Amino acid sequence: MRGRYGRQGSSQTRARTGARTRARTRTRAWAALIAAGALALTACGGDGDATRGGPSTGPEQKGPTVQLPKLPGEKLEVSAVWTGPEQANFAKVLKEFEKRTGATVAFVPAQDPIVTFLGTKIAGGQPPDVALLPQVGALVAAVRNKWAQPAGPEATAQLEANYSPGWRQLGAVEGTQYGVYYKAANKSLVWYNAKAFEAAGVKPPKTWKELIAAADTLSASGTPAVSVAGADGWTLTDWFENVYLSQAGPEKYDRLAKHEIKWTDDSVKEALTTLGELFGRKDFLAGGTSGALATEFPKSVTQTFTGGERPAAAMVFEGDFVGVNIAQTEAKVGEDALVFPFPAVGAKAPVVSGGDVAVALKPSKGAQALLTFLASADAARIQAGQGGFVSPNKAVDLAAYPNDIQRGIAKALIAAGDDFRFDMSDQAPAAFGATPGTGEWKALQDFLANPSDVAGTQARLEADAAKAFGN
């Protein structure tokens, strides 16, 4: 995701023609996805009238749907940038793999940028057997560096049975299947504290103008409107991408993602100016500007759902995985913590997706077995039941998800098929879109600190992008 889009064309002309064709095809179903997502969320309380029932316990556990080899005594390592409850939930998946195969699996925490982390491990002769990469570009880099192993026939069979062509293609490089998209994300959601909204008399906004008006009302009532995780630059790229996709449209989004248009383009100016309407109001931000810049993502969520009617903020923007962090508070998803689609800035509300792709880094039977398991509904069902997780695996029963909100998000993702826009910064080279303290992350943190400097932000973004893309 923070690198080029996966499959590469054989020439610039072919790539651009393909991009235009994909843009036209995806645009037709774009509105359908938005409608499906909005409908699902509204049914779960996204309009402020929440369903007050407790979370579903889900279906009885089904038997295995994928056969795995016996691997007694084999030791495997898996790396990902996951921490905290997300890592703990994934550990339950690995435990099931161990139970079925007799192998032992150790989780090795990785750091961003993961390509640098893996490069160090490989140079030291200690690569993990499997890595879950949070960027399309990281997969491309792993293949070009000759680190990655092609997916075996068993994993490929699971992919063909369970995944749409678009998700399979995202895990392929130059026509060869390497990766399994184990985890997906809807990154166009705003989660809100139901009590704070009720106390201020605010309803979920459907447009950017309504969002700013709601933020004004909330802040005037004594509760800052938004908790922004400015200490983590990736969250700021997600803010920008949602505004840009809705305002500039999908075709320009695709072109900017490939650096076919410059960051000094007027469309970028318009998006930053719009985003500045929110970031430029210190009273809208939990802790003001300095507080936002010091807030990491987990805290941005937890501080929104603690404090009763007077939390640190009334809303927090991020993907469906926010549910994992809400679970660390006393708030209940679907009751205290509700969600609405990212408001429309232009004619259509945005839908930005992301995900984590599993790739084998060792030519071992164990690595391929784990890849096969992660491509199965069996593995996804386990983590789906923990919350804060959505799978692009269409064979996962929606009843596996623990509440109506998660089911609605998952249903909208599967219904979308191949019609989604992938996280823009995740399509860029890691030096621009996926490295703390540099590139887009740093430029947007500087913008959060000084939202009036639109031209300066554009100039820095373009200089860094040109260097990273080599043009």
From TrEMBL:
Keywords attached to this entry: Transport
Source organism, top-level taxon: Bacteria
Region (Disordered): 1-24, 47-66
InterPro entries: Bact_solute-bd_prot1 (IPR050490), SBP (IPR006059)
Similarity comment text for this entry: Belongs to the bacterial solute-binding protein 1 family.
Name of the protein in its database record: ABC transporter substrate-binding protein
Native species: Streptomyces polychromogenes
